[in-house]
Amino acid sequence: MKLKQTYKELPSIFYADVALNKVASPHVVLWNEALANELQLPAFWREQADYFAGNDMPEGAAQIAQAYAGHQFGHFTMLGDGRALLIGEVETERGLVDVQLKGAGRTPFSRGGDGRAALGPMLREFIISEAMHALGIPTTRSLAVTLTGELVQRESLLEGAVLTRTASSHLRVGTFQYARQLADYEHVKVLADYAIMRHDADLAEQRDKYVQFLQRVIERQAKLLAQWQCIGFVHGVMNTDNMTISGETIDYGPCAFLDTYDLGAVFSSIDRQGRYAFGNQPKMAGWNLARLAESILPLFADNEEQATEAAQAALNDFPVLFNVYWLEGMREKLGLFTAREDDRELVQQLLLAMQQHKADYTETFRALAEGDYPDNELFESDAFFDWEMKWQQRLLQEDSSYAEAQQLMQRANPIVIPRNERVNEAIRAAEAGDFAPVEELLHVLSTPYTLEEQYAHYAKGPEDDRPFVTYCGT
Ligand SMILES: Nc1ncnc2c1ncn2[C@@H]1O[C@H](COP(=O)(O)OP(=O)(O)OP(=O)(O)O)[C@@H](O)[C@H]1O
């Protein structure tokens, strides 16, 4: 197999060539065999720690850092891969897949950074991205974590590691912002054509392909955000450089899954204003998409007024689409196959009761799916009693049986999610040299809708009311 290099065919402002930053003694500590098989990687790659640490390159590989910009917590900055190396694309049945080494050393975009990553955050990205995939949520994937044999300086000295990440592309909203900020109409157009080739090839010959492209990105993001909200995922850093064109979740920094249901949940210690709080995520996604629309606006029409109108119409669809997908997801979580007018109210009433009684989000829905309620404040409350009567009446309006509704709920409500405490425990063990807990956690998270009995403790939320530990070390 030879890696492809379509991204390198873009004008050179979109990337920088990077020399290899060799490390002392690479050692692969986590390997995703299922993903390697899916990508049909040659079997001998498994043994090539040098490939995954950036010491050596497979056939056809390049070494480039991608250029992009981004609004970070609302402030625009020119960025680029400061610690990642795109080595090429694997051709698969589902299209090209980027292979990137995250933490592979300095690049021309590193600014003051060392270009490196510590083991803990790379394990965290591996675990959570793979859990998201198993939950059915579009995401970048993780192929390997490779120790470098070198230390990195953070608050303390930590073991260095490289994550091998795959993605259906690493094009971001920020890539378009970069093109618009730095270059002319032609460069924005070349980038948009490239993105269409990667993600929306069927649009290539359409007359209004750029407006349709924007609509597609909006549609994908609306679906993604609905999935995040339904599963209780808080991304934490929804900067425009962390929003993909593909609709895959990217960058697992200070992210977390909800324990107790709380619209205000924030897990990032740098997000003091709650800009990216759980309940704000759909609004912030809409804001980011407006930045994409602005960046490609000149491609829509010669006439500025017409172009703005087309962009506005597409952007106005985002909240509408989000709401449709969200309600669809929520209906499934409640075992409803059909749509009725009052469904939104029914869902909101439950969520309000969950927020008031500090109920665990995942446990609550799974308890509904099992029909087996734990003794806790929510399930003993009048609010729940009242809601449950309405829910039961609503279920009776369905043509399907209760058993069918239950099956639907069991497919829509996971038993296990990567709870922060469990993830951190496993990472701490790995940092001390024991990778068995990470492997076990990955095993459990790979089938989140079923759980073998011996792993029952993974299903439990934290027993006390402590807020999550925030995790921001990169
Ligand atoms: N240690 C580092 N050295 C150099 N650049 C860094 C370092 N850490 C982060 N950066 C750069 O700072 C920017 C913002 O960082 P952020 O943590 O959002 O991204 P990341 O996790 O490195 O990458 P990605 O968004 O691709 O997952 C990125 O351009 C990133 O490349």
TrEMBL record:
<keyword id="KW-0548">Nucleotidyltransferase</keyword>
<feature type="binding site">
    <location>
        <position position="102"/>
    </location>
    <ligand>
        <name>ATP</name>
    </ligand>
</feature>
<dbReference type="GO" id="GO:0005524">
    <property type="term" value="F:ATP binding"/>
</dbReference>
<dbReference type="Pfam" id="PF02696">
    <property type="entry name" value="SelO"/>
</dbReference>
<keyword id="KW-0460">Magnesium</keyword>
<feature type="binding site">
    <location>
        <position position="251"/>
    </location>
    <ligand>
        <name>ATP</name>
    </ligand>
</feature>
<dbReference type="GO" id="GO:0070733">
    <property type="term" value="F:AMPylase activity"/>
</dbReference>
<feature type="binding site">
    <location>
        <position position="114"/>
    </location>
    <ligand>
        <name>ATP</name>
    </ligand>
</feature>
<feature type="binding site">
    <location>
        <position position="165"/>
    </location>
    <ligand>
        <name>ATP</name>
    </ligand>
</feature>
<keyword id="KW-0464">Manganese</keyword>
<feature type="binding site">
    <location>
        <position position="172"/>
    </location>
    <ligand>
        <name>ATP</name>
    </ligand>
</feature>
<comment type="similarity">
    <text>Belongs to the SELO family.</text>
</comment>
<feature type="binding site">
    <location>
        <position position="80"/>
    </location>
    <ligand>
        <name>ATP</name>
    </ligand>
</feature>
<protein>
    <recommendedName>
        <fullName>Protein nucleotidyltransferase YdiU</fullName>
        <ecNumber>2.7.7.-</ecNumber>
        <ecNumber>2.7.7.108</ecNumber>
    </recommendedName>
</protein>
<feature type="binding site">
    <location>
        <position position="251"/>
    </location>
    <ligand>
        <name>Mg(2+)</name>
    </ligand>
</feature>
<feature type="active site" description="Proton acceptor">
    <location>
        <position position="241"/>
    </location>
</feature>
<keyword id="KW-0547">Nucleotide-binding</keyword>
<feature type="binding site">
    <location>
        <position position="83"/>
    </location>
    <ligand>
        <name>ATP</name>
    </ligand>
</feature>
<keyword id="KW-0067">ATP-binding</keyword>
<feature type="binding site">
    <location>
        <position position="242"/>
    </location>
    <ligand>
        <name>Mg(2+)</name>
    </ligand>
</feature>
<dbReference type="GO" id="GO:0030145">
    <property type="term" value="F:manganese ion binding"/>
</dbReference>
<keyword id="KW-0479">Metal-binding</keyword>
<comment type="function">
    <text>Nucleotidyltransferase involved in the post-translational modification of proteins. It can catalyze the addition of adenosine monophosphate (AMP) or uridine monophosphate (UMP) to a protein, resulting in modifications known as AMPylation and UMPylation.</text>
</comment>
<dbReference type="GO" id="GO:0000287">
    <property type="term" value="F:magnesium ion binding"/>
</dbReference>
<dbReference type="InterPro" id="IPR003846">
    <property type="entry name" value="SelO"/>
</dbReference>
<feature type="binding site">
    <location>
        <position position="82"/>
    </location>
    <ligand>
        <name>ATP</name>
    </ligand>
</feature>
<feature type="binding site">
    <location>
        <position position="115"/>
    </location>
    <ligand>
        <name>ATP</name>
    </ligand>
</feature>
<keyword id="KW-0808">Transferase</keyword>
